[in-house]
Amino acid sequence: MLGPPGAGKGTQAERLHEDFGLLHIATGDILRAEVANGSTLGSEAKRYMNDGELVPDEVIISMITQRVGGGEARDGFVLDGFPRNRQQADALRDALAALDRRLNATLLIEVPDDELVRRLAGRRMCVKNPSHIYHVEFDPPKHADVCDQDGSRLVQRDDDREETIRTRLGVYHSQTEPLIAYYDGAGLLRRFDGRRTPDEVHDHIRATVATLKLEEEL
Ligand code: AP5
Ligand code: MG
To answer: What is the mean pLDDT of residues 79-83?
Structure first.
């Protein structure tokens, strides 16, 4: 899953998990859990995340390749937030080749920058489960600041401040966007109009993944 901050990667990856039982591997969620645990990795990562910069590749690459090689990923996985630059993309290609596996598709969700700022500023996240994502205007919970799914408190992410959002968008354009051409060249790229409603984006992505799955099984 590829796309700028706030494009809806987490929202859609969680739905793919429900539709197809794919393991949802979200680098941001894993890092935030490390920060909350107060681990060494978490305290190192926190500095970069709060500034909106990328956490160093060596930390991220081993964290993700471990999960991709694990038993839970055996029947398929969705990567959300990884790879984010060319080094990470090359490391992923090598790790998958060593496992005799490959990517089936790169799902790109496209949304213009001004819309992304509105989305991130209004995002709320469940304190217990980061996959439960809301928006005060576009996808509000039934009761303000309470998660519909488990009744937990909803919070704002530390990096969803306007200044940090601008840095994250800059990092995306300079470091991650070149991966669009990389995956297009590999024949894997599928584009989705992320300005549509979450349900419409979901319908399109689900149809694409269902077709890919059928082709794989033939
Ligand atoms: P990460 O957690 O991955 O953040 P991100 O890429 O900035 O993306 P977001 O999670 O903010 O957005 P999303 O696309 O998931 O959107 P969502 O579904 O929530 O990374 C955070 C940090 O960790 C990075 O800055 C970096 O420091 C570090 N990091 C992570 N991975 C790394 C890596 N590989 N290498 C190095 N460092 C790494 O939706 C957003 C909002 O919009 C929600 O409120 C939602 O309800 C709403 N919404 C969703 N879809 C729609 C729609 N169609 N219409 C209207 N509203 C919508
Ligand atoms: Mg996310």
So the answer is: 98
